[in-house]
Amino acid sequence: MEFDQLRGFLETAREKSFTRAAEKLFRTQPAVSLQIKALENEFGQKLFERHGKRVSLTEAGRLLYNQAEQIFSIVDVIRNDMSGLSELRSG
Question: Rounded to whole angstroms, how far apart are CA atoms 25 and 4?
């Protein structure tokens, strides 16, 4: 699992669309679909129910969504803390 795959997953879940997620991430729709497929293969779980062009999260998808949000929240805290250290050294 890679951060980029999780980002693609989160945007797809938020947008409920592979196409709109791809646009927000400046990727092609097939690239985002491949990211999701890789995650589904890795976990052995279907993450989305497909309804034409719309998607919704499965139970496994909801679990991953909540965990992925926490991961990116922690990453933001780390970035802010590191940025604060840099400012202390230069200030």
Answer: 10
Residue reference for tokens 């990453």: 75
Angle at which helices 59-90 and 29-43 cross, to 10°: 110
Q: Could you read off the pLDDT tens digit of each residue along the chain, which spans 91 residues?
A: 999 999 999 999 999 999 999 999 999 999 999 999 999 999 999 999 999 889 999 999 999 999 999 999 999 999 998 988 877 666 5
The answer to whether 25 touches 14, Cβ cutoff 8 Å, is no
CB 33 within 8 A of CB 19: no
Please tell me the total number of residues recorded for the chain in this structure: 91
Amino acid at 49: E
